[in-house]
Amino acid sequence: MESRTLSDLVSVVYRRWPGILLVVLGSVGASLVFQAKYTPAWRASAKLYLPDNPPTFSFSSEKANIPTQAPIPTAREDVQLGMLSLITSGAALERILEKHPEFTLQELRAKIVANITREKMLQVTATDPDMHKAIDLANEVLAAFRDLYKDLVERGPRSNLATFQEGLKTAEENQKSAQDAVLAFLDSLGSINLQTEVQRLVQERNTLRNNLEELDSNKKIRETRRPLLMEIIGERPEFVEASQSIGRNSAYVNTIKSLSNLEIERATLLLQFTVEHPKVVALDERMRVLREQAAGELEMIQTGSSLTRDEEVKRMLADLVNMDIAESTDAEKRGIYTARLADVEGKLKNAPVNIAELSRLNNEVSRWRDLASELKRRIYELELHLRHGIDFTYVNEYLLAREKTAKAVPTPQNVTIFAAATGLIVGVFLAVILEIIALSRMRRPF
Amino acid sequence: VFLEQGRAALMEPVRRRIRDFGPLGSALLMLAGLGVGVLVAWLVNLDHAYGEWFLFHRGRRESVIRDIPMLFTYLSWILLMLLTGWFALVYMHGESDRPILGLLVFSLFADVIPALYQGSLAILLLLLLIRSIRHGDLPLRLSPVLIPIPFILVSYLITLLKAPALGASDFLFRLSYMVMLVVFPSLIRTRRQLRILFHYLIIGAIISSTVSYAEYGLSIALGQAVTFAPGAASKAASPIGVLPRATGLMAIPNHFSNTICPIVAMLIYFATRPRKLLSTSTRILYLAIAAYLSVAVGLSFSRSGWLALGAVTMLIPVLRWPKIVLPYGLFLGAVALVAWQSGLAKWLYDTAKALGGGSVDFRWHMNHIGVMAWLTDPLFGRGVGTIRAFFNPYNLEVHDTFLQVLADMGLFGLTGFLALFGILAHRSFARLARTRDRVDRDWLIGVIIGFAIILVQCLFTMFIWIRFLWAWIAITDTVVEVTSQPEEEPADLVFLRPPPNLGGVPAHGI
């Protein structure tokens, strides 16, 4: 390093100013030629707003539908990195290549630059000599990214939907099978309502038991009353004779037999109907007529004697008649009741097992029905979401690339400034170098 | 004629007497004072209304103390006090050379004070202009280190062809850093001046480190990081919990450690001088300052700073006492073996790695972005600053200075920078090989050690447009030049002239 002064440097520049000016002018001139022959590239940028959470909706409440704070663009680095790599992925760019077959994938990739701006927005910048193509590329890449991103976001819900739909089929099939099993089981039981049937059987069993007890009770009453009645009637001789003539009256016997049959029929009907049932009422009416007839036939026998005047004897005789009727039907009634009771108890014995089996089958039906119902609800919700679209992103016409915001690179001003500044730097540098060479030659001439 | 008139005017004795401007003049002065008062009140009102909004808007709200109304008013008041103190210093010295140089050197450690460097440089250049007028000329030393500068500038300007905008303000600021390559070698021409410069560097480092201690104290007191670093860069996840990362007066902890570590290394190296060359009191002072600064580097949690400082400091004994290389090497090897076998080394590595959370992964990713950006135009790069918009979710530069140059300016720009470093390295080592004087050798080895530290740290930080790097290039070049000069003070010194007892000319006016 040699000691020089500021004046030396200034004088170098001063003395060699024509050369410096020549270099500057040459540089600027070259830049003008360059600008005339070279088409600048255009850069167009499109931006996308990406909040951390998409707008959502809920069936249960409107709270989720209304944002409670300003949506802030995503600040998570891992998400941002993923988004940037998605932009230049083959999946995104190949969509663009379908529209622009004039490019190769590599050329397209070189034209696209993605970035996350300071405001945390996704920015796609496309460069092309054609301004409109640059704008289209920027917007199309952004749109491709949006679609891809949407696909990515909706992939989970779509997969869930397919699974749910498949699950719904299975659930419905299983529900039908379970229902068929219930029907077949009920059919095997001969009833469509096992609970009611069991209740009815229990009621019938109680009735039968009551009836049997009543038969026993009536028999004991008759056994006690008959001798008493006989004794009372025996104290009245005319009654004895009268009764003897009655026993031998064939019309009376037939009437009693008819009454006996009707009594059995009534007892059978009462197993199914109440006393108010028309059939039972009609039967009662017939029985009442027959009883009157029987009493008449008896009276007709008695009219030959003096017995007809004693009403008390007539009543006791009527009681004896009824006792005879009851006794004549007692064995048959008891046989019917006992057989029926055995049948009912046999059925009731299997009831708990049948109820448990039916419950199990019904539970099976409920389980599949509930599952199918839940799946249907969720399928509907998912379909609604997907029809509405799950979109994290937001863009509008001002964020998209436009002619107004496209920039030429380099601009004519920048080229001129570069040429002038570079010319000046190189010119001064050359002047200093030439000066050093000149000084060296002065000191050490050839 | 103009120059002659100006020189004559400057050579006149300075009148210090307060002049009476008469009643009208006094009234006008009073009115002017009133106007200034109203202006100040208006500014205070603006600060009250919009000061916090401005801080928030600039994204610095998190890194300064929150909720302080009229912060700018307080800062302005402090600045006014500092300016008053500075002028008092100038008055005490009887000249402005030292305060101006001190301010310029201090600005190297104070990136967060806006325009301090440009302001101090402008004052210095103004002073030199006045001196050049007074003396008729100004000594100028153009070093070969300047040869790559045109290449670097042209490489930078290529950004105009690659991007819609250059970032003109950045370019002009960065251009001003390169001015130091001319200013320092031209002004610092003697060993005495070099010592003054070194002392100012130490003072600057101490002030910045003291600020870092204050930051730490405030952070612990307030329970949140009170530093100048933005967001995640202001904290470190240590084994004992999240700790703040001190920044001193720099904007980023790594930059702070980058500025302090070279000074620490030089201090340690100088403190190991033989007894004949250094008094005990100075040795103790140097070591004490080195310890003080080292703790500040520790508080910055800059792992690259720790690494660079540790590695280079371990080399100092080898450089200072070459005869002990073998035993020293064996000792270091034994220590390393014990650390390795005991698991201490792995624990230290894991702990240091965990300090920055995902910082290592982040750097890998940033470097990958840098390589991809470079490959889009290997020759000229993508343009300075454009990497922030290139698949870059971090909005940051590449955290590797060399890769940063490669991505921004391509092979063309990297060639310029490598030429700059290569020429400087060649000059330094060539001078070292020729120098026999022990003190001169210390100066040379000291700045080379400092440069080595910076270059190691450059592998982990975006340091190329930090003015301290350019200052250190200029300082290294200055040391090379000064050590090649004879001991005598030259007669044509225009800056930091020697005091009268050393044969210098008394300070006269400005």
Per-chain topology:
The complex is a heterodimer of chains A (446) and B (510).
Chain A: E1 3-5, H1 6-15, H2 17-37, E2 41-48, H3 77-87, H4 90-99, H5 105-111, E3 112-116, E4 122-128, H6 131-189, H7 194-234, H8 237-247, H9 250-272, H10 278-302, H11 311-349, H12 351-388, E5 407-409, H13 412-443
Antiparallel strand pairs in A: 2-4, 2-5, 3-4
Chain B: H1 2-11, H2 22-57, H3 71-93, H4 97-108, H5 116-135, E1 139-141, H6 148-157, H7 159-162, H8 168-178, H9 180-187, H10 191-222, E2 235-238, E3 241-244, H11 253-271, H12 280-299, H13 303-320, H14 325-342, H15 344-355, H16 359-376, H17 401-434, H18 438-458, H19 467-483
Antiparallel strand pairs in B: 2-3
Helix pairs in contact in B: 1-5, 4-5, 4-10, 6-17, 9-19, 10-11, 10-12, 11-12, 11-13, 11-18, 13-18, 16-17, 17-18, 17-19, 18-19
Commentary on this structure:
The complex is a heterodimer of chains A (446) and B (510). Chain A is mainly alpha-helical. In chain A, 73% of the residues lie in helices and 6% in strands. A 4-stranded antiparallel β-sheet of chain A has the order 3-4-2-5. By secondary structure, chain B is mostly helical. Chain B contains 19 helices and 3 strands. A two-stranded antiparallel sheet of chain B has the order 2-3. In chain B, a hairpin with a 2-residue loop joins strand 2 and strand 3. Chain B is globular and about 85 Å long. The model of chain B is unreliable at 504-510 (pLDDT under 50).
Number of helices of chain A: 13
Give the number of helices of chain B. 19
Count of distinct strands of chain A: 5
Q: If you average the pLDDT of chain B, what whole number results?
A: 86
Summarize the helix and strand pattern of chain A as letters.
EHHEHHHEEHHHHHHHEH
Task: Please describe the structure with a list of short key phrases separated by commas or semicolons.
heterodimer; A: 446 residues; mainly alpha; 4-stranded antiparallel β-sheet; 13 helices; 5 strands; B: 510 residues; two-stranded antiparallel sheet; 3 strands; 2% strand
